[in-house]
Design brief:
Shape: rod-shaped
Order of helices and strands: HEEHEEH
Strand content: 15-25%
Number of helices: 3
CATH class of one domain: Alpha Beta
Distance between the termini: 155 Å
Radius of gyration: 51 Å
Largest sheet: 4 strands, antiparallel
CATH architecture of one domain: 2-Layer Sandwich
Number of strands: 4
Length: 200
């Protein structure tokens, strides 16, 4: 006589355990996935936040640098304006000295029998109009100008005979230039400087 065993309850129990095990695994997998996603989100969110902070810091520093660059530009503009003023003042002083030197040099180089009617200066260019007792006196004046340390390039524009009072003279128009003599070397300047007085 064979025994009959009913295995249905056992199989059903095993299926329930398998389904429960699968549900637990699925839940754990889903939870692990959520944890990974949350950790990734937190990580990248922190990185983005750090990068945003860096960007804000860089923008603030760039704004500071732009402000400093603007200030430097203003300082440079002020320096350029001061230098331009300094150059103008130096030019005026040089022109004033040149005018004095021009007058002194004209008096020094003017030969006897030559008289100036007008002197016009435009920068380094000078225009002389005057009277001479003869053409030879004008030639002498031109030679004197060529040997002058301050005057150069005499160019006779016109010479003609005119009557001044009861005298017959030559009226001339002469153009010339001014030059600056070479500045002395530092050694020459030191030699030319007076020696300090000895004490005792």
């Amino acid at each position: 006589m064979s025994a009959r065993i009913n295995l249905l309850p056992h199989r059903e129990e095993r299926r329930k355990r398998a389904r429960a095990h699968f549900a637990v695994l699925a839940g754990m997998t889903a939870a692990l996935g959520l944890v990974i996603v949350g950790a990734g989100w937190l990580f990248y969110s922190g990185r983005i936040s750090n990068q945003d902070d860096r960007n804000r810091f860089m923008k603030a520093e760039i704004a500071k640098l732009d402000k400093e660059i603007d200030e430097i530009k203003e300082v440079k503009e002020k320096i350029e304006a001061l230098l331009a003023r300094k150059r103008i003042i130096e030019t005026l002083q040089t022109d004033r000295v040149q005018t004095v030197n021009l007058m002194n040099e004209l008096v020094r180089q003017m030969p006897e029998g030559v008289y100036l009617k007008s002197v016009k200066q435009s920068g380094p260019n000078i225009d002389l109009v005057g009277y001479a007792q003869s053409n030879a006196r004008v030639s002498t004046l031109m030679r004197n100008i060529e040997s002058s340390p301050w005057l150069t390039n005499p160019n006779l524009v016109e010479i003609k005979a005119v009557n001044v009072g009861k005298m017959r003279v030559s009226e001339f128009n002469l153009k010339l230039g001014m030059k600056r003599p070479a500045a002395p070397d530092a050694k020459d300047a030191a030699k030319a400087a007076p020696a300090p007085a000895k004490k005792g």
